[in-house]
Specification:
Helix 5 packs across helix 6 (150-162). This protein is 36% helix and 23% strand. The strands form six sheets. Strands 13-12-14-15-25-24-23-20-21 form a nine-stranded mixed sheet, sandwiched between helices. It has 543 residues and is α/β, with parallel strands linked by helices. The longest helix is centred in the last third of the chain and has 16 residues, at 527-542. The mean pLDDT is 92. The protein binds glutamine (GLN).
């Protein structure tokens, strides 16, 4: 039976619970255990799919098509275990499930209440779909004391009781340094644990984020006030790279404290060579490249979390540091001259996924700048659609080409597909559907053309990549574009959906309809990002 590790957060938000959990999972994995991670999110949205990236950061998509919290991206990047639909749930979905049952009459006329109905639904979710995993890490979003997370806290409290011996609680807190007093302060942690204990949860381990080392006597004090053994009060110091976290937590004894809390005495020593190699590559790069990311949500880089990490991974693969120049695409709409000033010196240009009209023309101009000036160009999802529009307008004699996403162009070379084939099934969408959950989501196969650049990059004839979009490049424009130098090098198996477009006569110009960044790992950099960073490196050697 799997053992459960519940991770809660206190004092302030943004302490990096997701990362902490992911790093711990990777340590358990390094000891030979099979792990699984999931997240309970207290907000009311049914999933983060309809949430503004400015507010919630990136929406992470799983193979099976769930739109989830970005923490699931950390989980995958640290463990390599693909997340599933069953690994992220929100208050909204829990209530939706319970209310549907109530309408169906499943509760036989009973009064439906937070305890036990909502808490039971949460417990069912937390424990569902577990196979032969040794450890299941469950992160609870939000901060202890939030009104909205209370049902989740109550549910895991109950589980702690029901799974006694097979469940532990880790609480992540902050030990702030007060510069004026020259002291680290433990009071916020004490209060946070007091709050947690008042709802019946006694943490087994405290993970204390701090910008300065926490002396042993202070850890003993925290332990005493919080009723936690001082060996289980672990300092989590700020580190330069997130990939340092597993090594740093191991050094502080986190995985030992976890094994100890479960009474496991026969664990293997962890093999951390993978992480040591990554850190060596991150801290001792042999060069650097500058890559422009021309997007729309650049003020909040969490909106492009997986993308940023995938670029870092591309750097790890090539032993170079990747400097990202974040550029708001709208600037190119107002001021054409800025194109050359902003993009003239970069070694590669990436236009990431996006939605809506704002900034689209700036992205089209960026694709044009990259194409004309032989600068490596990587267009992801919207970035591919924009590159296709650019090619149609400027090379294929279709000056008014556009996408039906924001208008009625002559012609719309990108438009809504209402029907396509997956395996032997036809999937249908109506343009009148709700906005939530109406996209092409999750992993779909793509055939790579013999002799194409992408076929060489992947080294495979068929790939599976994750999608999240409503619109498609219209296959009817394939011939038009292929005549002027493009190649539709990746297609859905039925040949009806363009998945990859490349320009064979360009140093590196690739547009993909899917999101390769979602599958990249520091220990297994995505081939496209590896190749793209390599192209940027080649470019840097030319200039
Ligand atoms: N807005 C585009 C679509 O829906 C692209 C989406 C994306 O880039 N993720 O097709």
């Amino acid at each position: 039976m799997a053992r459960f590790i519940f991770v809660t957060g206190g004092v302030v938000s943004s302490l990096g619970k997701g990362l902490a959990g992911a790093a711990l999972a990777s340590l358990l994995q390094a000891r030979g255990y099979k792990v699984r991670m999931r997240k309970l999110d207290p907000y009311i949205n049914v999933d983060p799919g309809t949430m503004n990236p400015y507010e919630h950061g990136e929406c992470y998509v799983t193979d099976d098509g769930a739109e989830t919290d970005l923490d699931l991206g950390h989980y995958e990047r640290f463990t390599g275990v693909a997340s599933k639909q069953t690994d992220n749930v929100t208050t909204g979905r829990i209530y939706q499930t319970v209310i549907r049952k109530e309408r169906r009459g499943d509760y036989l006329g009973g009064t439906v209440q937070v305890i036990p109905h909502i808490t039971n639904a949460i417990k069912d979710f937390a424990t569902a779909d577990i196979g032969d995993e040794d450890f299941v890490l469950v992160e609870i979003g939000g901060t202890v004391g939030d009104i909205e997370s209370l049902p989740f806290m109550e549910a895991i409290r109950q589980l702690g009781n029901e799974l006694r011996g097979d469940a532990i609680f880790i609480h992540l807190t902050l030990v702030p340094y007060i510069a004026a007093a020259g002291e680290l302060k433990t009071k916020p942690t004490q209060h946070s644990v007091k709050e947690l204990r008042s709802i019946g949860i006694q943490p087994d381990i405290l993970l204390c984020r701090s910008e300065k080392p926490i002396p042993v006597n202070l850890r003993a004090k925290i332990g005493q006030f919080c009723n936690v053994r001082s060996e289980a009060v672990i300092q989590a110091l700020d580190v330069k790279s997130i990939y340092q976290v597993p090594l740093s937590y191991h050094k502080e004894g986190l995985d030992n404290a976890v094994l100890d809390a479960f009474g496991i005495t026969d664990a293997k020593e962890p093999d951390l060579s993978k992480w040591e190699d990554i850190i060596d590559r991150v801290t001792n790069p042999e060069g650097e490249v500058n890559i422009a990311v021309v997007g729309k949500y650049i003020e909040l880089q969490d909106a492009y979390k997986s993308l940023t990490e995938a670029l870092v991974h591309g750097g790890i693969a090539n032993r170079v540091k990747v400097n990202i120049d974040w550029i708001e695409s709208e600037v190119f709409e107002k001021d054409m001259d800025s194109l050359a000033t902003r993009l003239g010196g970069v070694h590669a240009i990436l236009v990431p996924g996006g939605f809506g009209e704002r900034g689209a023309e700036g992205k089209i101009k960026s694709a044009n700048y990259a194409r004309v000036n032989n600068i490596p160009y990587f267009g992801i999802c919207y970035g591919m659609q924009m590159a296709v529009i650019e090619g149609c307008r400027n090379l294929a004699n279709l000056p008014n080409a556009g996408t039906s996403e924001f208008g009625n162009f002559d012609p719309n070379v990108v438009g809504i597909m209402t029907e396509w084939t997956k395996g032997n099934q036809t999937e249908k969408r109506s343009t009148a559907d709700d906005l939530g959950g109406t996209m092409r989501l999750g992993a779909y196969p793509c055939d790579l053309a013999e002799g194409s650049q992408v076929r060489e990059i992947y080294g495979e004839a068929q790939i599976q990549e994750r999608h999240r979009h409503r619109f498609e490049v219209n296959i009817a424009y394939r011939d038009v574009l292929e005549k002027v130098g493009y190649r539709f090098s990746g297609l859905s198996p039925h040949g009806d959906l363009p998945e990859i477009v490349e320009i064979p006569d360009h140093p590196w110009f690739i547009g993909v309809q899917f999101h390769p960044e979602l599958k990249s790992k520091p220990f297994d950099p995505h081939p496209l990002f590896k190749s793209f960073v390599k192209a940027a490196l080649d470019k840097s050697r030319l200039v």
